[in-house]
Records
---
Amino acid sequence: MTFSMTFSLTSEYVDRSGKLMSREEVHRLPAEELADRSGHNIHIFATHEELYDALADIMIEAVVSAKGRKTTMILPVGPTLHYPVFARKVAEKKLDLSKLWTFNMDEFLDRKGRTVDVAHPLSFKAEMMKKLFSLLPTGAHFPVEQMFFPRHDNLEEIDRAFDTYAPEGADLCLAGVGPEGHVAFNEDPNFRHVRVGEEEFLNDRTKLVLVNTSTVDMDALVAGCGDRCTIPPFAVTIGPHDLLRSKAMVLAFFADRFQRYALREVLFRKPTMHFPGTLCKLKKSGDGSLAPRTEENLRILCTREEAGIVESRTV
């Protein structure tokens, strides 16, 4: 089945039957109705600890189900608190990770377009080394050389690594979705004088991007105590091509009220590059065609906090 998309700046929401929904209806829908109305495989946990445990189990499942064959994963920094849980479970189960290859989604670049140093407080590579690699037991046999990190100077190398180790798509992609829809650092590519067509955007591979103002604002609130100057202005990111080719997609919403809007956009908005997280509902095949993901290869995880209704209030 080929999925045809028409991109529009107009928000369009539909339920599982294709019935049009208003923006207000989507925002006010009770959490307990999200799965049934959307038709998506959504798991709502009571606590974030349960959410992180489930994410770790999904990673474990991908390794175990491979039965010694090569396993490839695209991994985010955000969320990250499932990585220590994964490392603990690997140790408990005495798993062998020698056939695991991982691709980090993205990394910040400084104002000169250079990859931030691992000493930078927002270095994604440093965070992965601290939260994952350094916690894995030596008996897991997971060499750091099998962790691919995008940089400003290795774009084609990352693309070749996908072609070599995941020619039919990564086995698993874990991702978060930002308030304005970014997945990895794939944001709406159209801004100021830049105009990008849908086909071009969907074919993007590893690339350099300008970090949008809204993302800077959110990162400043979450990671920089409100200081926007601490957030690097550029980034390198894996593009939609390799993300959407993943065999299994798991979206995690973990940032409390900040992600309520994004969750409902993903669940009910028609796929659009103007909110790239909605594109994760699509699977890209080798010939470039797009089809809706099934409940088996798209899982959406959140807690009751992220699943709450979208409302504004004074602070």
---
Amino acid sequence: MKLNRDNILKKYKWLREKKRPFIISADYDGLICASFLNHYLNWELVGYYDFKSIWLSKEALQYKNNLIWVDLNILPKAGTSLGGHIVSMNSTVPKGFNSSCNPNILADINSKKFENKFPFSTLIFLLWLHDIQIDNKIAKLFILHSDNTWMKVQRYSNNIKYWTEILSSYPWDRLFKNICSIQHEEQVDQFLYPRLIHIGASTNFSKLTSKYLKIKSRECKINPDWDNDIILRLLNLFGEYISWTPPVIPKIIQRVDGKRLKISLEDVKKIGLDQFIKKNKVFSYAITSSRYISYTNFSKTIKS
């Protein structure tokens, strides 16, 4: 199977539209997507979501029925999302995702094929979709750090090959050149990570380690209540090293708190995914392994 970018862009016309208001995941991956979308499409960043809380600006409330949720998978029909989590248990996809673009849905990857889950970041999907090619070696360090893509290239070669064939007509060999080398790991360890640590954009370690030097992967999760300085520094770092114009940081005026929960796939299968979503008033969810679903619901409605 091969996906055709022109067909995707025709089906999801909003992916080419200019000046769309959008909300991002509250982490490194969301912020680097924000830089891309502002630079190439002049989209307006209006809020954040970390799967527990939503931070909203005045503009987010104003355009709440026309928002795009980036690096996220949300269910309300009023929302449109772009994300890379598995969201189906079989070939049937909940109606809430009809207007949303997800490479796993496009390639018919569900929980039964978890080993074939989309392995790249949302940013990498955007690069492929808009046929934007990156040759600068330093820029690649920041881009391939999104969702720890470079470590996945090292560790999951079969699935990487599977997806580079699905996402055809792109110079993957150039983007991934020398990733499986000690030299690349040294660049990450001696250039990239120190700069992220210096600005406070390294808050956790994730489970992955590099192939040669056994470097632990680093993550950056942000809390917009007090991390505006980190957000600004990170966006400026992308501007400096990737030459993407930083978006204006939204002025947050409201936070809506929800609950993030976890349930086994077996329990969901007993009542069916659609009934589970309806019963638990699920706002967003992801099948995070072959055994579990993580989901979020909100007890109150977002009001303007």
---
Amino acid sequence: MMLGKLCQQSPASWEELMPRSGAVRPDGRRAASEYLQQLLLKPGGYRQAWERYATRERRGTINQLAVAEVLARYLWSAPRTPGDSIVTPHQLKDTVSRALTGRLLSRAALALFIDAFGFSEHEAGRLWRLWNGSATIGVMSGTHAVPVSAEQDVDAALGPRRHQTLSLHDHIWVGSDGRIDRARTMQVIEAMEPGVDRIPFVCDTNVLTLEVGQGCKELTGEVRRIGADVFATEILLARTLNMGETLTLEYWLSYRRPGDPADPAECEYRRAVMRKVDNFDMRIEFHSQKLPAQVWWAHWDGIEGQVLEREALTLDTQHSAHRYLRSLEKTVAGFHWQWDVGS
């Protein structure tokens, strides 16, 4: 079992961002509301956009009137109806409240949030898929990174393992703001008994969303707390496997970070592996406008421990570093970096 240590878009192109499968869940708009909240709370440009209008701030709380100010100012510059050019933030406060509490997030309101805050194409796509009830994406609840449960605790919560991993590939992207933006995982599994129709997914609370693709049918929709701020859900497979059968899975993760790129904890990406994984491959790619001064491949003394050993790496012409291991077992390994020499 592995633990993840874990736009502006023209109206004509919204259809490209709609769900790609027939799986629909009834609480999609509430899930979209939860993700919208997390985007506005996550340190960075979106949060700064509304914080500049907030007269009072409470940690971990969105100032709804300040958000309404952002929406109003956008409508003043790009009115959609004759009345938009004179709309006031107070007139939009109820719209913001309903949207962020999940009571009512209409199509028009979601489109306004996306345009006013300039959410990226990836983020806008997730919002629309959630809003439309896609069961292939879920918001992982939580607030901060924490220690991961021991193997026996996870086994007790999830039951005995029914599959093994034959190969695992992680591709991580670091954005122009220096924060980990997203990761794509390709995983080949083999059933260890008949009737395997799902696998567990476990993460800490750095993970914001999980979206599944190839080889996956949908998420179960249930996110469970199985430890101190450690969460789990299940990925339903595209087909049921008999013993010895294999399947290739693809899924994407997006992340929340506390907001301090100088913090060493935000300058690393680790994979914790409890049981043996063969053919492990990890690649990290940095934005061309934000390149690190140094990058290392490292092994840590557990999730909470210090670096045990590390090896300096050189970025290639695609601003990426790569490491392949024939096998990995009961260890924590990955990349860490620093932005300035001597920092």
